[in-house]
Specification:
- It contains four helices and no strands.
- It has 71 residues and is mainly alpha-helical.
- The protein has one domain.
- The mean pLDDT is 80.
């Protein structure tokens, strides 16, 4: 891989987009809906930006993962 290709993989939004794609693909047991995946990617990205800016993660109920809180 070239350095440009590696930097894309390290980008926060692209990481959130990949996480959203995989999460929706598992939930939908196949190719995920693009609109739902885009919306989830944006929510995950905004959440991660907030965590990086404040240093605090939003926590939900006991046993609830961060992706469940955001979604």
């Amino acid at each position: 891989m070239t350095p440009d290709e590696e930097s894309v993989l390290d980008d926060l939004f692209h990481g959130c987009a990949l996480a959203a794609f995989v999460q929706n693909a598992i939930a939908q047991q196949g190719w995920p809906d693009p609109g739902e995946t885009n919306a989830l990617a944006c929510r995950l990205y905004e959440y991660e930006l907030a965590v990086r800016q404040t240093g605090f993660a939003i926590t939900g109920r006991v046993g609830e993962s961060a992706s469940q809180v955001v979604a």
